[in-house]
Amino acid sequence: MNLSQAIEHRIFQVIQAEAQKLGVEVYVIGGFVRDLILGRPNTDIDFVANMHGVELARNAAKALGIKKIDIFKTYGTAHFRFGEWDLEFVNARKESYSRESRNPQVEQGTLQDDQNRRDFTINAMAISLQSENFGEVIDPFGGLDDLEKKILRTPLDPDITYSDDPLRMMRAVRFANQLHFRIEEESFDAIKRNAERLNIVSMERITTELNKIILCAKPSIGFKILFDTGLLHRFFPEMVRLHGVEKRNGIAHKDNFYHTLQVLDNLCETSDNLWLRWSAIMHDIAKPPTKRFEEGVGWTFHGHEDVGARWVPKIFGRLKLPLDHSMKFVQKMVLLHLRPIALTKEEISDSAIRRLLFEAGDDIDELMKLCRADITSKNEAKVQRYLANYEIVVQKLIELEEKDRVRNFQPPISGEDIMRIFNLSPGREIGIIKNAIKDAILDGVIRNDYDEAYAFMLQQAQSLGLKVES
Ligand code: ATP
Ligand code: MG
User: Fold this and answer.
1) Last residue of some domain: 235, 258, 278?
2) Cβ contacts of 86 within 8 Å, gap of 6 or more
3) Amino acid 343: pLDDT
């Protein structure tokens, strides 16, 4: 195959010319080649030279009018940006691994050595930039064929490839999900055998791949492979424990692993927000430890939203996910995920809706998306009933928010106001009065208004034996 037509961009011409002047051979390699053939957009281009990669990068940058170039001396690599393009230059390398580390010993190698160390046949293809065969695809392992067949296969023995650098197992799952490729049987079995090797990979690397899976259009595909290969068990046992069904007195509960994946896929149709997607993954995470069988009721999972919310920081910490506002957001979603539908179990009171709006604040729309995605059942009548309830809550939320504006509710009288009015120093009375005002507004006893809140506050203060400071 020759791709000279597809690489007509000036970048490739300039690099060819500079390589020729330096007397080195240079190739485009890896993901860019794969994506070019698949027709997927990719602006990261990796170049591999048989020698002098850094000099080649310097000269090419100069010829393209680029001044800023990053050089990594220890690795002999260089990188620069050219418009929307990210260009990376390396020397061809040969790698040898030890048992303890995924960081190999590296020595100078040939193009062939460099292709041997790649993770998958479809990622090992190179395009020659030499003038005698410009554009020719160098494909020693049948990557073109595998692209055609949509399979992921390692260039060398899969057991060695995965054991050498176990991160490749996560990459296999990620590519299977992103590209809708199948992991070829031998590879799949090798991943099962080597899953435990994931323990030499840093959590950050694992999580980077996991997040790429979660950002796919249909992440259930990746999670099912993670489960079936045993990879998920290595870093996310809480999710594994969602798997399985128990039956008592002829009553079974649903399999919460597949339910969670269904919710996640549903959500992905309406949201690209990584943290909302994480909320879907975590929403039922504490169902296993809260599961009970109650006579006459069936299976219950009381309090799983509270326990789940408490688990979020622990799990995020272990997975090296951020412990900032993103984590807090997930925590809030997990805690509140049952509320919108639960509201409809009683008569839907304005007060309950106001409280939900108050607690969810600006995240109410995200919460409603999660809640909508959580409506899954094999029982079509049940789905229809929940959907109808969901619509009622949505309508009520819109009406009440327009009327009362409680989404970003700030009490009309602040703690400082209270301290000044009653000449108090900070103490528990202030909290009591503030809360009483907040509750009165959310319950519709008074309106969200300074004068009404002031009058209400005086009544409350009286019962606490406080006097207004004149
Ligand atoms: P994407 O950019 O979408 O993540 P990619 O295939 O370009 O996909 P990169 O991480 O950018 O992935 O790596 C570029 C190339 O380097 C890959 O195509 C592959 O040839 C090689 N590569 C990356 N990581 C590994 C690895 N862990 N083991 C072997 N080869 C790898
Ligand atoms: Mg890339």
Assistant:
1) 235
2) 43, 44, 45, 79
3) 80
Interatomic CA distance for residues 44 and 216, integer angstroms: 19
The two tokens of residue 146 are 């595998």
* One domain, residues 79 and 180: no
Counting from 1 in the atom list of ligand 1, the atom nearest the Cα of 29 is 20
Give the pLDDT of residue 255.
96
Residue 372 lies in a domain: no
Ligand closest to 168 (CA) is 1
Report the pLDDT value the prediction gives residue 470, as an integer from 0 to 100.
63
The domain of 54 spans: 4-149
Q: Are residues 137 and 174 in the same domain?
A: no
Domain shared by 104 and 67, yes or no: yes
Clarify whether residues 170 and 145 are in a common domain: no
Query: Cβ < 6 Å from ligand 1: which residues?
Result: 30-31, 44, 46, 118-119, 123-124, 165, 167-168
Q: Mean pLDDT per 10-residue run, the chain (470 residues)?
A: 90 96 97 97 96 96 96 91 96 90 89 95 97 95 98 96 96 98 98 96 98 98 98 98 95 96 98 98 98 93 97 98 97 96 77 89 94 91 88 88 76 87 86 89 86 89 77
Q: What is the pLDDT of residue 313?
A: 98
Model pTM score? 0.91
Closest ligand 1 atom to 117 CA: 29
Ligand found nearest the CA of 141: 1
Query: Do 183 and 128 share a structural domain?
Result: no
Q: How many structural domains does the chain have?
A: 3
Alpha-helix runs per DSSP H in 195-297 = 203-214, 220-229, 231-235, 237-240, 256-268, 274-282, 287-290
Residue where the block lists tokens 């809140």: 453
Domain boundary residue among 116, 133, 149? 149
Of 85, 95, 100, 101, the residue nearest 119 (C-alpha): 95
Q: What is the CATH number of the domain that holds 28?
A: 3.30.460.10
Specify whether 145 is located in the same domain as 156: no
CA of 326 to the centre of ligand 1 (A): 28
Question: Could you give the CA distance from residue 332 to residue 154 in angstroms, rounded to a whole number?
Answer: 42
CA of 46 to the centre of ligand 1 (A): 10
Tell me the ligand closest to 164's alpha carbon: 1
Distance CA 214, CA 217 (A): 8
Residues 56 and 101 in one domain: yes
Contact 88/46 with Cβ under 8 angstroms? yes
What pLDDT is recorded for position 422? 86
Query: Which of 36, 119, 175, 205 to mutate for ligand 1's pocket (most ligand atoms within 8 Å of CB)?
Result: 119
Please report whether residue 441 resides in a domain. Answer: yes
